[in-house]
């Protein structure tokens, strides 16, 4: 039986592994090779060594994009996780059920649907929606309210270089927070209710319950969420390309590496585009490894 089992298992694994290697791993290898070449799509590629990387490191747009990713890596996970934890805690532990048992606030099932709604919307739909919200005149949702309240001039959320990136971060948070509310709610549902009840019998209030019980027991889920949101911070191309002004503007204030890849592709600079792609891949892997290493801690069992 043992001799016949392994050929049987290998026989089932060969096809998926071959397909994965051809459609996933091989494009990565091709991109890395192309990053050392110059190719405009019309003639055979020419090997240029590290010339593409040197040119990329000498471009201001690369360092602008890198700076923006740094800002996104700090604020996008931090704000999203903070809001998602707050909402998930209220929906699961913030109220009292029958008999005084710990439960979510009234209407928590409805609120879960409301929070998750942005996840079902396509990125272009979200971009068009917030283009209306941020419109720099009285027809914009926010400016319309502010002008009626007595503001002298409308706020240029997407045309002011100091406000453009924070405005895009707000959109990304709005889009992402619902998914992590559901994720954290699933994690909190696995925490035995007896732990909360015992803590409340000892005199713990809701704030103490959150920081002393929920947060430590949910740490592994928070760690995973931070990695996913970091990857989202590197993958902000869709929102930026649709919502930002003047191709990552104003004045490059919202450019990201994904947008630089797209721009180089449009200019038939495929070697340069591949170089930016390799840089984006390496940065994502380094961030994930560093985050998992930095946030590693002893697992609590209950």
TrEMBL record:
InterPro entries: ABC_transporter_permease, MetI-like, MetI-like_sf. It is found in: Cell membrane. The keyword Repeat does not apply. The keyword Transport applies. It holds the Pfam family BPD_transp_1. The chain crosses the membrane at residues 7-29, 71-93, 113-134, 163-183, 225-244, 273-292. Residues 66-291 form the ABC transmembrane type-1 domain. One of its GO terms (cellular component) is plasma membrane. Keywords: Cell membrane, Membrane, Transmembrane, Transmembrane helix, Transport. It is a multi-pass membrane protein. CDD domains: TM_PBP2. One of its GO terms (biological process) is transmembrane transport. PANTHER family: ABC TRANSPORTER PERMEASE PROTEIN, DIACETYLCHITOBIOSE UPTAKE SYSTEM PERMEASE PROTEIN NGCF. Belongs to the binding-protein-dependent transport system permease family. This is Sugar ABC transporter permease. The lineage of its organism: Bacteria, Bacillati, Actinomycetota, Actinomycetes, Micromonosporales.
